[in-house]
Amino acid sequence: MFKKKEEKPFVSAVIPAAGSSRRMGEDINKLLLLIDGIPVLARTLLSFQNNENIDEIIVVCRESDILGYAELCKSFSISKVSQIVRGGNTRTESVLCGVKACSDKSEFIAIHDAARPLISQDIITNVINDAINYGAAAPLVACKDSIKRVENGFIVGDVKRDSIAAVQTPQIFKSDIIKKALQNAKDNNLSLTDDCAAVEQIGISVYVSKGDYKNIKITTPEDIELAQTLLKEV
């Protein structure tokens, strides 16, 4: 929470929801699967709807999903969704479409995976504050398992755990930074795994915010079961 109302910047949230669900199988849209009776996408959007620091939400999806997602937003009274826009051919292009749809008033843009429905209010707010202080921030968690280098099916060495971490979302940036970074990635056909990588490509460092192990990404059917369990612990 910000101490003074006048200090609060305009923050947009871009939610990429245009990806496929291949690992779910049988052409299942994982974003419509239920966690304790509420669709994954609705849970994600409600997290940003309920955060007082978020001013608008942009959803990016396949054209065939636009009407359905609009109905979902209406059903769950998600009023901060200002636009639902069609994505591009790659994740980077899709996020860029969402970023370009943000309000001209937007000072910071939060990009969050639609398939991370358990994001907490504290994480959203903390990453926003870190982005305000440093220009770019993302939540990370330490890797708990031993990490190995593998070649041709055999372990060939260790990777020190203290030098690596797992990045999560929301990844939050000053608007001009992420717009420049994503446009650069598109213009140069860069193959990137997340938005931090795009920002790093233009020479800007991303501050490490504290992540949350419960902030899982729904990828497989087992993740739905895990999310159900984690939800009971919240």
Task: Outline the secondary-structure elements.
Elements: E1 11-16, E2 34-35, E3 38-39, H1 40-49, E4 56-61, H2 66-75, E5 81-86, H3 91-100, E6 108-111, H4 121-134, E7 136-142, E8 147-151, E9 154-159, E10 165-167, E11 171-174, H5 175-187, H6 195-201, E12 207-210, H7 221-233
Family: Belongs to the IspD/TarI cytidylyltransferase family. IspD subfamily.
Pathway: Isoprenoid biosynthesis; isopentenyl diphosphate biosynthesis via DXP pathway; isopentenyl diphosphate from 1-deoxy-D-xylulose 5-phosphate: step 2/6
InterPro entries: IspD, IspD/TarI, IspD/TarI_cytidylyltransf_bact, Nucleotide-diphossugar_trans
Tell me the number of helical segments per DSSP (H or I, 4 or more residues long). 7
Ranges where pLDDT stays below 50 over 5 or more residues in a row are none
- At the fold tier of CATH, the topology name is Spore Coat Polysaccharide Biosynthesis Protein SpsA, Chain A
Report the structural category.
Answer: alpha/beta
Shape: globular
Helix percentage: 25-40%
Biggest beta sheet attributes: 8 strands, mixed
The CATH class: Alpha Beta
Examine the secondary-structure arrangement and name the CATH architecture: Alpha-Beta Complex
> Cα-atom Rg, whole angstroms?
18 Å
| CATH superfamily placement | Spore Coat Polysaccharide Biosynthesis Protein SpsA, Chain A
Portion of residues in beta strands equals 15-25%
What is the string of SSEs from the N terminus onward?
A: EEEHEHEHEHEEEEEHHEH
Number of strand elements: 12
Q: What number is the mean pLDDT?
A: 94
Counting structural domains, the number is: 1
In whole angstroms, the N-to-C terminal distance is 21 Å
